[in-house]
Structure prediction request, 122 residues.
Amino acid sequence: MSGPRDARARGEAVERLVAAWLTDRGLEPVATNQHAKGGELDLVMRDGDTLVFVEVRHRADIRHGHPLETITATKQRRLIRAARFYLQNNRLSCPCRFDVVAVIGLPPELDIQWVVNAFDAY
Prediction:
């Protein structure tokens, strides 16, 4: 039986794999696991002049639904709030977007789906 520590380690491993996968596709890593008021930013990356806040959602399988289904309006609001805090804290003013990367499976057999500009800050 796996506990919370195992799940956290697995999540961090998947986030590292996703960061490398996105880097291979032209994004530049800026920061990982940025804790902010009311939320956490999994990955912060750059795509040219745009700062990209990447939410990584992982499921070993889709028995309980697709990982993309977990990006609810409430989750979006938390990510937006965390991103605003990050921007303010780092005194940044630049174009931004929110991407979601859905990962299904267990390493090394992963199905990765990247949704660019998954939702807007409102």
User: Anything to note?
Assistant: The helical segments are 4-24, 73-89. The chain has a mean pLDDT of 92. The chain has one domain: 4-119. The radius of gyration is 14 Å.
